[in-house]
Amino acid sequence: MTDKLTVSVLGTGIMGAAMARNLARAGHDVRVWNRSRDKAEPLAADGAHVADTPQEAVRGADVVLTMLYDGPATLDVMRRAAPGLRAGAAWVQSTTAGTGALAELADLARAHGLVFFDAPVLGTRAPAEAGRLTVLAAGPSAARDTVAPVFEAVGARTVWTGEDGSAGSATRLKLVANSWVLAATAATGEALALAKGLGVDPRDFFGLIAGGPLDMGYLHAKAALVLEDRLSPAAFAVTTAEKDARLIVEAGQRHGVRLDVAEAAAERFRRAAAGGHGDEDMAAAYFASFEEGKPPSS
Questions:
Q1: Which site in 42, 212, 224, 233 is 20 to 30 Å from 8, CA atoms measured?
Q2: Which CATH architecture has domain 172-293?
Q3: 298 pLDDT exceeds 90?
Q4: Where are the domains of the chain?
Q5: How confident is the model at residue 1, as a pLDDT?
Q6: 138, 161 in Cβ contact below 8 A?
Q7: Class of the CATH-defined domain 6-167
């Protein structure tokens, strides 16, 4: 393989682990680190080196890929990794960090001579595991050949949004897309909850809208998780959905846009998490519609 790279993946949760596994399968030399080492350990069976520290993980890497919880977590981990970073390496920042965090992350990249790519992804567990994510990326054309093999290993499509990763064009597009995803998730839960409360068979609702402009595959996919009690393992967890919803609200506020639906969705996710559903799929926001998080008896 002519494009073999040394790639460090920092953060091996649902998305990071799948990305690391696909990078290893593509023939790259993969080093991984996670705050909870037990989440990284299974990747050793795929040929990845499990590092004890971020500094160890990034030493000598051609590409560092961060897939952590949020902007502050990413900044903290990359500061810890700093002594091992190689000037000229590419930093693929794939955490959904929000617009407010990007400037500080880009400043850190410049301070250590890294080539910064703002590169969040669209997709959940299944497309991540299949290497079928959509990569939204912004970064310099001159360095894109370096990261192209990484994007090809983890994604089915790369959408370039700009030359300057620090400008956040990829993150801004990701937040717009996520605002729609989270709104649709919240609406699905409320429709199912109302059907439950009113004694309406959800199948009657699905049949009513079938084939028309109100129908959508995403509705059926998320509804099935609730109706068939398949909320674990999560494709995208409630707690992460709440975090993303709050980043969306914050981004709107920064630009003079009021986002009532995103704000309400964040509160629904918060209530669902408080009710014990934080690690379940974000479709579990359904339970936020009920007193004490429990639907009425049939």
A1: 233
A2: Orthogonal Bundle (1.10)
A3: no
A4: 6-167, 172-293
A5: 44
A6: yes
A7: alpha beta
